[in-house]
């Protein structure tokens, strides 16, 4: 009867603790919106699912020198290596969370000596009872023990299990973070490499123009001797040559800086970057297939990272909510304890214990509430970050799709402009020699022709960068 009453009291206590823990403060909840448009352009009617993001980067980039640079960067880049260590940190966190909801088992051994005052209950008891028959109790009394013990928190509400699952999500998030760093690194290397090739081409054009302008200067000097032009014409041509020669050194400085940027990304000290300096003029932009916007959710590492962070934040809310509920702890131990080491392994020295405790917060739960509110706010924050990442990815691809199309048309027109101005140089020189054109017309024609060739190179560079950027925006490169 007494035993049954004890059980009844325990049951009432458990119900009371559970009821107290279930009264949770109200919070705002928000579900994410992952709806995206059906296409990247309002004028697009086809639903072609071919996507260039699935192409491996070694197949997407054909230049062997560029492939070698990317391989070096993936092995040596410091930012990428830092990210790899973040993955190791997240993996260790998973192990820690997994260990928290498993029983803790340990081995305990010890020895000590204890002198108890005779004017206490224990002291009086020890001196009235013979520990060793026929002998006076030893004073002070020694103590030896050896055994194993275990502690375990029963994960009734899934608090520890959800904490482990959140750690797993964050680990997977760091993996996607590494993939995103890889896509950024590949695009940076490729863009810088194409910029380097463009600068090589510009330098070659400047050198050609210097030769053309030097020839024109010699003609002007001869015409001055023949009194057909004045010293003013000679000085204007000289100034044009000097200006173009100074441009040559500006380009050489840009080449040095671009090479060093590539070397930094590759994790190495400044050195010449292997390349074919004549290859830029033969480059043809790769045909890119954008697929459909919904594929971004699977291809973009930053979107998958934001999704995993959101999943982890939702689990954090569950963990914080479980702190309001009662916790059940179980502890146990078994071993031997004796006042003499020679008695330590005798059956009479055996001891064991088993205990359980149930606890729940009743009053002053401000710290738990604050953790719960914070976890909920972070979850809402993660929702907005996830939606923003999707929106940003869509806008990036839409911009690059439009840019590829417009640059293709622009390059065709600029090519025609360069052809016309190149022919006009020869025409202006012939007219000038026959005194049918002013020297200023020759100078302006040479300047316009040089600028148009530079514009053509810049347009082609933008084309190559657009093919790199759209590949990056689609989520290609990390696989």
From TrEMBL:
Q: Does the keyword Iron apply?
A: no
Q: Which segments of the protein form a coiled coil according to its record?
A: 70-97
Output this protein's name: RND transporter
The protein's matches in SUPFAM superfamilies, at most eight in alphabetical order, are given as: Outer membrane efflux proteins (OEP) (SSF56954)
**How does this chain sit within the bilayer?**
Lipid-anchor
Q: Which UniProt keywords apply?
A: Coiled coil, Lipoprotein, Membrane, Palmitate, Transmembrane, Transmembrane beta strand
Q: What family does the database annotate?
A: Belongs to the outer membrane factor (OMF) (TC 1.B.17) family.
Q: What sections of the protein cross the membrane? A: none
Q: Which InterPro entries match?
A: MdtP/NodT-like, OMP_efflux
- Got a GO cellular component term for this one? plasma membrane
Q: Which GO terms describe its molecular function?
A: efflux transmembrane transporter activity
> In which organism is this protein found?
Flavobacterium subsaxonicum WB 4.1-42 = DSM 21790
Q: Where in the cell is it found?
A: Cell membrane
Q: Name one Pfam family in it.
A: OEP
């Amino acid at each position: 009867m007494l035993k049954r009453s004890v059980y009844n009291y325990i049951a009432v206590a458990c119900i009371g603790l559970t009821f107290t823990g279930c009264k949770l403060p109200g919070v705002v909840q928000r579900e994410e919106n992952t709806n995206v448009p059906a296409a990247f352009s309002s004028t697009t009617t086809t639903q072609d699912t071919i996507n260039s993001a699935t192409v491996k980067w070694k197949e997407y980039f054909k230049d062997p020198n560029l492939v070698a640079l990317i391989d070096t960067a993936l092995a040596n880049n410091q930012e990428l290596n830092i990210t790899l260590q973040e993955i190791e940190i997240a993996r260790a966190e998973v192990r820690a969370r997994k260990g928290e909801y498993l029983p803790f088992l340990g081995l305990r051994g010890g020895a000590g000596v204890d002198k108890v005052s005779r004017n206490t209950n224990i002291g009086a008891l020890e001196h009235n009872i013979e520990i060793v028959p026929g002998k006076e109790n030893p004073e002070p009394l020694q103590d030896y023990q050896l055994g194993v013990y275990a502690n375990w928190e029963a994960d009734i509400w899934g608090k520890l299990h959800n904490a482990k699952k959140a750690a797993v999500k964050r680990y997977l998030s760091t993996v996607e973070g590494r993939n995103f760093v890889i896509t950024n690194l590949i695009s940076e290397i490729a863009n810088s490499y194409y910029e380097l090739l463009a600068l090589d081409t510009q330098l070659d054009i400047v050198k050609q123009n210097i030769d053309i302008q030097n020839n024109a200067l010699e003609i002007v000097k001869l015409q001055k001797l023949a009194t057909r032009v004045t010293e003013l014409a000679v000085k204007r041509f000289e100034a044009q040559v000097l200006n173009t020669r100074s441009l040559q050194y500006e380009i050489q400085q840009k080449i040095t800086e671009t090479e060093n940027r590539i070397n930094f990304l590759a994790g190495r000290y400044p050195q010449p970057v292997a390349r074919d300096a004549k290859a830029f003029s033969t480059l043809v932009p790769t045909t890119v297939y954008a697929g459909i916007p919904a594929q971004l959710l699977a291809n973009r590492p930053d979107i998958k990272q934001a999704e995993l962070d959101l999943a982890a934040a939702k689990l954090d809310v569950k963990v914080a909510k479980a702190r309001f509920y009662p916790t059940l702890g179980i502890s146990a131990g078994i071993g031997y304890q004796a006042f003499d080491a020679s008695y330590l392994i005798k059956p009479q020295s055996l001891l064991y214990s088993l205990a359980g405790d149930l606890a729940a917060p009743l009053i002053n739960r401000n710290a738990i509430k604050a953790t719960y509110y914070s976890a909920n706010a972070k979850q809402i924050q993660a929702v907005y970050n996830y939606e923003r990442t999707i929106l940003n990815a869509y806008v990036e691809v839409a911009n690059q799709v439009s840019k590829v199309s417009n640059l293709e048309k622009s390059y065709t027109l600029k090519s025609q402009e360069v052809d016309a101005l190149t022919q006009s140089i020869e025409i202006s020189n012939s007219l000038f020699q026959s005194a049918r054109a002013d020297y200023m017309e020759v100078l302006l024609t040479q300047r316009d022709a040089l600028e148009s060739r530079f514009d053509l190179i810049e347009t082609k560079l933008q084309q190559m960068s657009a093919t790199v950027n759209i590949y990056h925006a689609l989520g290609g490169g990390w696989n």
